[in-house]
TrEMBL record:
Residues 199-379 form the GyrI-like small molecule binding domain. This is PadR family transcriptional regulator. Pfam families: GyrI-like, PadR. Residues 12-83 form the Transcription regulator PadR N-terminal domain. SUPFAM superfamilies: Probable bacterial effector-binding domain, Winged helix' DNA-binding domain. Signal peptide: none annotated.
Length: 384
């Protein structure tokens, strides 16, 4: 079985079978015929290919002007002609491999915003259209063309047109996604997620479902807390992508929320965090089901084995009447506001506790200065 020929080697052999040529002549023909539109063969690689073919005995120099090695004229040997014919027969039946780099990009596209994917596809579309224009211009310049050359240009144009059509359709899909209405609980229930920062307000919180996980300990130091939050987000994003793919319904991952409790409520004022008990939450759209959550947990576990995943649940919570306020500042500076709520506002308005202290974290503490953190402080209440 003879050694295979690369695309570049086949191209050069074919041109030398037409007639003996030197490197500059090969470059001229390749440029004139638009060969680079359908094979990767740069000018600098022509001499490399010629050297390889000569060492394999597939071509030989027929003349070399004194002191002008680059002007050596090469002709195909009998073995080179035979191998080129064999490779050509095989290539006529070979299917085009679908190995375009854009396919890898599409496989990885969920890690990017839909608008960014659309921008990349738009740039690709422009480049493809420009390439098609150049191929057609090269074809016109070569007229009249023999049937084989016409077939080459037909194929190049067909591939580019197909790629343009695919890119246009894919871009249209991502443009629609980038403008698609995504469910966002902060917008759907703005009255619950945009309270004033100066005065307490009374609201009625309807039934919501959440991804929930329970724990105990200092949120700043307990590994159980870190694992719990990581597990919630892992499952939430898995659900988001699954919902978008299988149901065509997308949503914004909700802000992290927490229910806080203790046998002795004064531990919150004194910030004795080791005694805090908590339930961390991520609100979910009402179309998310138990089965979807179980599948998402399994998929998240396959990516990273987090022990907290075993404790993630889909839980329904109805808080009813609540009092809330927006706190701006570090978490440890919540105490004066909570003291005012517990010891002034509630008794002055004939109200008492009717559930766990609830916090909603609107800011990412990893990217926000403590003085600018925004946290909703919410307390379910009932008349005394």
């Amino acid at each position: 079985m003879p050694a295979e020929l690369t695309d570049g080697e086949m191209t050069v052999l074919g041109l030398l079978i037409e007639q003996p040529r030197h490197g500059y002549d090969l470059e001229r023909v390749i440029e004139q015929r638009g060969v680079r539109a359908w094979t990767a063969l740069g000018f600098s690689s022509i001499y490399y290919v010629l050297d390889k073919l000569a060492k394999r005995g597939l071509i030989e120099a027929t003349s070399t002007p004194a002191g002008k090695k680059s002007r050596a004229v090469f002709a195909v040997t009998s073995s080179g002609r035979e191998l080129c014919a064999t490779a050509t027969r095989d290539a006529l039946t070979a299917l085009t491999p679908a190995r375009a780099r854009v396919l890898i990009a599409m496989a990885n596209s969920p890690i990017l915003p839909a608008t960014e994917v659309a921008h990349g596809l738009a740039n690709r579309l422009g480049a493809l259209r420009q390439q098609l224009t150049e191929v057609r211009a090269t074809r016109v310049a070569q007229q009249p063309l023999p049937p084989a050359a016409s077939a080459i240009f037909d194929y190049s144009e067909a591939m580019l047109v197909a790629d343009i059509n695919w890119t246009e359709a894919t871009l249209d899909t991502f443009n629609k996604e980038s403008t698609m209405d995504k469910y966002d609980i902060k917008k759907a229930h703005k009255e619950l997620y945009a309270p004033p920062s100066k005065d307490f307000t009374v609201i009625d919180v309807p039934e919501f479902q959440y991804l929930a996980i329970d724990g105990r300990g200092n949120p700043n130091t307990a590994a159980t807390y870190t694992n719990a939050v990581e597990a919630l987000y892992g499952v939430a994003y898995t659900l988001k992508f699954a919902s978008k793919k299988t149901l065509g319904r997308d949503f914004v991952v909700a802000p992290l929320e927490g229910l806080w409790r203790a046998d002795d409520p004064t531990v919150f004022h004194s910030r004795r965090k080791d005694q805090w008990e908590w339930t961390m939450l991520l609100s979910q759209p009402d179309w998310i089901t138990e089965d979807m959550v179980r599948t998402a947990i399994d998929n998240a576990r396959a990516k990273k084995d987090n022990p907290a995943l075993d404790n993630v649940q889909l839980r329904t919570i109805t808080e009813g009447t609540c009092v809330q306020i927006l706190h701006i500042g570090s978490y440890d500076e919540e105490t004066p506001t909570l003291d005012r709520l517990h010891n002034s506002y509630l008794p002055d308005n004939g109200l008492t506790f009717n559930g766990d202290h609830h916090e909603i974290y609107l800011s990412d503490p990893r990217r926000t200065a403590p003085a600018k953190l925004k946290t909703i402080l919410r307390q379910p209440v009932r008349p005394v």
